[in-house]
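Milestone M4 deliverable, item 7.
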Amino acid sequence: MADPAVDVIYVATPHPAHLEHALLAIAAGKHVLVEKPLGLNATQAATVAEAARAAGVFCAEAMWTLHLPKFDVIRQLLADGALGELRTVAAEIGEWFDPGHRILDPALAGGCMLDLGTYPVMFSTWVAGEPDQVEAVGQRDAGGVMASTAMALRSADGVTSTLLATLAAAVPTTASIGGSAGLLTLDGPFYQPGGFTLSLRGGAELSFLEEPIGHQGLHYQASHAAHCIGHGQTESRHRPLADTIATLATMDRIRRCTSDSFAGE
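Output delivered:
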């Protein structure tokens, strides 16, 4: 933090330390990229955002997905109304973890939501906005963390989202957006580099191909942060702090449905 040669701090410590470490970086006058989640809840995320704005430094949640080329194309398709009136969003994520992994540790804010659930919830709020109705059911594992959460959301204009996050089983980890004029389906894992298909109601089908390079795609996020900082921008246009806070606010509502609480909140 005290090194004058350091311009940017990347906070990738365990979840309960994100708030403290982000605030330390900001207080030191450093730009900061914080691994998801920006905080354990929307209140913590808002605290980080307010500190960064007051200090005039760049701050963003490291939601790398939204910096991928395919999401730029999807963003344009949605803006152009290619799917017609939006009706549905679906997204799932699930994988296995070895015993001893931090995601299974209640003291480290473990469970399916902050590591995994953030992706489908982000996808839903990115497409449909904050929901006006939230329902969820969850199942804990033997160690006490929330192993699976199934979610149903509805936006103010009637878009319904069905979402799943689980660390109890592997799932295809695909996603889709359905509208009155077409269906957009993202190959799994939907949050990583890869392709998608746009199927129009009249039968036409268009495919977007992107090399599935996995986490090598993190370089798009790094380049974007460098671009923002180099141009004096304090927030990311791909992931503004208000969007991060809104996603966490939705996750807070989901977690209240399942009585899913974290140490340190």
